[in-house]
Specification:
By secondary structure, the protein is an all-beta fold. The protein has two domains: about 100 residues, Jelly Rolls; about 90 residues, Jelly Rolls (Sandwich). Helix content is about 0%, strand content about 55%. The protein has no helices and 16 strands. Strand 4 and strand 5 form a beta hairpin. About 20% of the residues are buried.
Amino acid sequence: MEIIFNNEIFSKNTDIPGIYNNDSFIVEASVITDDAIKQCGSLHLYIDLPEVQKVRIFTKIILLNQPHLVRFENINSSFYLSFEKLKNIPAITLKIYRIMGLTYFPTLSVPVASTATKTTVAATAISTTLLAANPDRKGFVIVNNTNKVLSIDYAASTSTTDFLQQIPQIAGGQASSFSESNYTGVISGIWASATSGGALIRELT
């Protein structure tokens, strides 16, 4: 196991040095100023496409004070990593380790889901609950099936200016999605403006 990043982060976006291929990572983060905060930002994977240059294809939300095993499966290309810090956190300490040739992390259990519960939430320009808190949740997938951007947050409410993640609108007939594991709390969402359609959600338990 090799450490590839160990630094304090103050800026919103930080590129992780290096180019990777079929690697797994352990990510650890701690807040410098406030131990009560539970989440700190997201780790993004990018690949280079000749037609459009750098494209983000994977996102992993990073929670604080716990190790995350991050795997990138079926990526048939070299890729880059970038970390996006939540704007309400002044600074964090971020450590990223690369695991080469290993497929396990002994102190981390990976939840396995056996049921996917379908939910549809109509689009609205007012903050609404997408998923209620569920201690049995193993993961979820949210698809934005509208022509407006969907902003979501791990909180009882969110807004178009203060959010955790944005899911783009349908483009070229293709809907965008966001998925995550290791979070069982409430998830709220709000669309950029009123529109038809909504969020297609699968909660994994």
